[in-house]
Amino acid sequence: MGIPSAPIVTKAFKDLAILNAAKRGMPHERICFTQHPVWGKTPDELRVYVDGQDPVNQKPFMKEVVDALTVPLSDEEKKSGIVSVSVGPPTFTDTAENLQDFYLNNGYTDFLPIILPTQEKVDAMLKGTSHHPDEVVGKMAAGAYPPWSYTVRHVAASAVMAGCRPEYLPILLAIASTGIASLFSSTNSFAFSMIVNGPIRDKLEFNYGIGALGPFAQANAAIGRAWTLMSKNLGNGGIPGDTYLGSLGNNLNYNNVVIAENEEASPWVPFHVQRGFKKEENVVSLFRGLGVVPGQVARGSSVNTSPMFDEQLSDLFSTFTGFFGALVIADPLVAVRLHEQGYDTKEKLIDWLYKNTTQTVKDYKSRNYAYLFEYPQALQGVEPFATWYKLPDDAVIPHFPRASSFNVVVTGGQTNAYPQAANMSYGVSVSIDKWM
Amino acid sequence: MNRRKLLSLLGMSPVLLTGDPARAGQAKRADSGADSGQAKITAVNPKGMPPAIQLIPMAPRLASLDGKTVYLVDTGFHGSDMLLQQIEAWFKRNMPQVTTVFRRKAGPYAQDDPALWKEIKAQGNAVIMAVGH
Question: Which of B42, B47, B93, B129 has the highest number of chain A CBs within 10 A, making it the mutation to test binding with A?
Fold first, then answer.
């Protein structure tokens, strides 16, 4: 902008602020730090912050602010040019034990033992695709940072580390091509999910029967884990305090929520067909959000006859944030029952859920994500938020901004009629076949 | 900034900073018995390719804030507006010769607001932006 600025950051984000500024070209940016948190404080408490010390630089806070705008620049601060960045040599040589330690201690792993990506194993992995090892697959950023790029070989290395077989590689390349990392730098501890559709489910022996979301098949386990390792290695994500800030973290980040759709037992069209692909195509679809809840906690879930899963799902969604969508994960028994209720398409169910999952404007405005993300859009005239913020507090509005906030997938082993629901939004669907 | 963070910034591991790539895969050689006859193997570096950093010269500073207009920009994080109100009050108490202008940046916190930057460049002399949480 060409105008002096004084950014103010709370002390909890000292490292993040310094590093992010540096990565964006201003390693000496004059960041002024205040106490943490600012959120939830009274005006009197905030005045104490302003009149007090910068807790990082140990100088009077407002002197730091004024100095940031008025003290002449140093030679370092005037520098231009390009600084190259290295991640080290293309290979490492040592004993297996030392290499395990080295990969673990340098943040290349999920802190579980890995399969070392030896040249031989990576070469074998590369046979899982026709693409050249040096082909650039895409770019991935750990949140709002400058993205890193990576090749087929880089993806193959993380695939080996996670315990993948070569025939899994096209799925990982498809995921990598989206640039979507499963570790995100937000303080919100996001979770991620993928839906796999097409004949590849059987070819790779994905589990979509009993325990479909559990640790019961190599493909589900290793591919999910590989997404997290790719997120750490391809885009440099998952460094606490730098590229990862989730206050509590999320256990789902270990191998994400991998869903192979039980297309055969579903009464509805598969998810990828809904997205415009042919049934015989192999497709992976990605989701992001906050987590998964079980249907057994819903009101109405104790009835023994004629269960109304539409109402149960709607009840489950009452604590969801509308900022993220709702992904219904239905056991085939649930899907068949819903079909019997008259929902002969996923779209009909979604339409009912959208219209019948509601909240008052007062409740809506009280939600964190409404304030952070949707109120600013309301001020810009973005609908439906602009209208919602003009309504009286007792007005009743949809819980989710649009019907497309909902998605439905069928998986599971039909041992009981239980659904689950994820507070997750659909991101993208990509072809796996393209990467074979 | 501590050492680990600096290395993270550079996309380099602490061992790699030794400048000797041959040592990069030998983090514990000295105390782990690595030279006791165990076979050595070669493994692929899984890290992607970071972009080069284009250094941006910082904008020239003002000689003083006397008679100047300082924009107070609210990012939209919880409490940012209230903190900036206290900063505005501080200026009134301690540097009344400074004119302050409060603005909430348009859109969610990560969204750019070129219209506001244009306004500040045309009408302001400096910016205070809050908060990074």
Answer: B47
